[in-house]
Structure formats: C-alpha cells, structure tokens
Write a structure and sequence with these properties.
The protein has six helices and six strands. It has 175 residues and is an alpha+beta fold. The chain has two domains: 61 residues, Arc Repressor Mutant, subunit A (Orthogonal Bundle); 98 residues, 3H domain (Histidine-containing Protein, Chain: A, 2-Layer Sandwich). The strands form two sheets. Strands 3-6-4-5 form a four-stranded antiparallel sheet. The radius of gyration is 17 Å and the shape is globular. Keywords: Metal-binding, Nickel.
C-alpha cells in the first residue's frame, strides 16, 4: 500500500471508529512504524483534516463533540498539585461532566492546550495509568498548578454543581 492510500485509509478508519485509535494500532494494521503513522497524521492535518490527538488515541474532531445539541459547554479554572488530579476528574465525571481538554497560560508560549476527552471513570483510570507509566508531567506543573478545563455537561445545572463541588474540595481557583 502506498503512503497516500494509507493516509486515506486512516481517515476512513477514523470516520468509522466508535472510539479513539492509537498510533500503535494503526502501525500494526498497516505494518509500518508508529513514527510513520505520526507523520501521516501530521500530513493529514496539514491537508486540513481536523484530527484530535487524545490521551486515548486519534479521533476526528467532528465525531468527538458533545452528543447533544442541548449540551452546555463552559470553562473552569482550577489549581491543585498532582495528588489531587484524580479527585478533580472524579468530581467532574460523577457530577455529569465530560472533560474536553486542559489548558495552561504559559508566560513564554502562551496558551498550551491538550485534548483529553475524558467522559467516564474508566477514562480517568486510563489517564492516570498512562501518566504513571510514562512518568508524565501535568501541564499545570508549568503554571504552579493553575489550569483551565473545557467541560461539557447535559445542562448548566450540572456545570454549576461541578463548580460547587470543586470549590468545596479546594480545587476551584477563585482568587
């Protein structure tokens, strides 16, 4: 299979997939290295394919959005150390939210953003395990623990409950 055909097939796979696909899964399927797949994704993005890289793999942005047109989207600002990360994520999920991304405002680079797409307790466990396995640093380590999450909730009421519960836990940044 030629590179151009492989890239088109990757797009087709992403369109048909119900879940994220990792670079390793693509590499195994197309019998190339993971790095070749990363390059393919970069070329597809340069060709205007809106592909998101999440901690669980690649997804098309159009398929990763909120499930309901009545969903509420908002942002929260939090501050905590790495030891409260799981608590923060659990509060959001248990109160009915989905964590779309995390952002920090770096003094040199400006806004740094990572797509998360965490919508279940299993997603939280996977994220925490990946951070541990790869000895990952939280983006918020660059900004004294201050970070922003974009959230999606079924209604504004769930969003308000998330903020209240994060505030009670000492995680919501309120200065």
């Amino acid at each position: 299979m030629k590179a151009k055909e492989r890239r088109q097939q990757i797009l087709t796979d992403l369109r048909l997939s119900q879940s994220p696909i990792t670079a390793n899964q693509f590499a195994d399927k197309y019998q190339v290295s993971r790095q070749v797949i990363v390059g393919d994704i970069a070329l597809l993005r340069a060709g205007y394919a809106d592909i998101l890289a999440t901690n669980q793999g690649y997804v098309l942005a159009e398929l990763a959005g909120p499930k309901s047109s009545t969903a509420y989207q908002g942002k929260i600002v939090c501050q905590h150390g790495p030891e409260q990360t799981e608590e923060e994520l659990r509060i959001i999920i248990q109160d009915g939210g989905q964590i779309e991304d995390v952002q920090v405002d770096h003094p040199v680079y400006g806004i740094l953003k990572a797509s998360l797409k965490i919508s279940s307790l299993a997603d939280i466990e996977y994220f925490i395990q990946q951070m541990s396995d790869y000895q990952g640093e939280m983006l918020s380590s660059l900004t004294d623990g201050i970070h922003i999450h974009s959230l999606t909730t079924p209604t504004v009421e769930e969003f308000k409950q998330i903020k209240a519960d994060l505030k009670a836990a000492g995680i919501l940044y309120t200065r």
